[in-house]
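Q: Here's a chain of 443 amino acids. Please give me its 3D structure as tokens.
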Amino acid sequence: MKRSFFILFALVYACAAPVFADDPFPIDRTWSSLAFRKALTASYGVDARIEPTVDPEEQGELQLVASDLASGRRTDAIRLLRNNLRLDNSAVLQFTLAGLLFEEGETAAAMRGFEKALELHPNFRDAHRNLAVAHLRAEQTDQAFPHLVRAVELGARDGITLGFLGYCHSQADRPQPALQAYRMAQLTQPDELQWQQGEAHSLAALGENRASAAIFRRLLDAEPDRTAFWLAEARALLDLDPERALANLEFLRRRKALDADNLHVLGSMYLNQSVPEEAAACFRAALSAAPPLAAEKVASAAEALLAVGLPDEANTLAASLPATDANAIRLRALCELASENATPVRPAVVASVESLLERNPLDGQALLLLGQFREAEGKPQAAALLFEQAARDPEHAAEALRHHGMLQVRLREIPAALNLLQRSHNLSPDPGLAKLIDAVRAL
């Protein structure tokens, strides 16, 4: 047992300072956990099948290392190990040095040390585990996985090994084994929030949203300021309790804790709840977020606002899109047509639609838009010609015939109007249009 004391004395001091606590990592909170650092660098036992033996000379070297660490001389401890003549042939010294280097943030050097320790003692369980952790810190999940599996095969049952094994399964989209590993990790680390969070994410991936939401609610009780927990609970509640999911996101919006994508999600939820003004506010906020909302999502949000009768709000979003983008031009034109403040029609918007036809004279939607502009300008003959051309595009034929038919109604050309409206209804049956046709016949 004496040799275990020397390893324990040396490595517990090695984990005293959180050198890498703020390093970016997908499970970064685990790195700053004192329990994690102690488990990572603590002593191993006395099983010679999975750990190398420590001879008296190595015990003496480790005692010197422990003395330097106890006095705060970490650099001297590392130098002592690096200059040791037995380093190349001692799995214990390699392991100890690698642990210190890992604590110092020298991940690549630590990996080499753990690998060398495994060359000297292939069944060195803690070296497998620590090498895997080093790979994870370098975001090399695929390289970490086999070493974690090997550590478990050699008898590892600690929370760190099993929790990180769950993380690897999760990253590889294997939620069922991830769930099992996260739950086993909590047998020895029941208070580790990272493993509870992993369990909740795995449950959500398996469609167990109610159980997932319950775990995230417990996590929020423990750490109510964690934005990630509020978001995860909201995702789990989307189908179960949409109003509570919306409330979570609204809480985060008021704390200015939502990014552009989640503001877009919240805006879409407000649309589903028939609160378009709040949706518009969310979409506007997403424009000024850092980074801002992607162009395709801006366009979809503008189309949604246009559909619920907020053309001016839609136009605000459309104005943020590139001026020469074809979809943006069409969107701005639709906003102009739907706006109550669009009389007279702005020449710049008309010109932008005309530019689409210069690129493609057969663009059915552009022809349809320009026809509506010509009608708004009081040019019915020009509008009728454009509607006729737009009707040749199968994708926009029904809409073009309907607009043309309505134009003929306004011109009191009833037989022509009935013919056009009926053709539109034949292409795209619509109860509302059928009623309109009956009303026109009544004229």
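Q: Can you summarize the key feature?
A: The radius of gyration is 34 Å.
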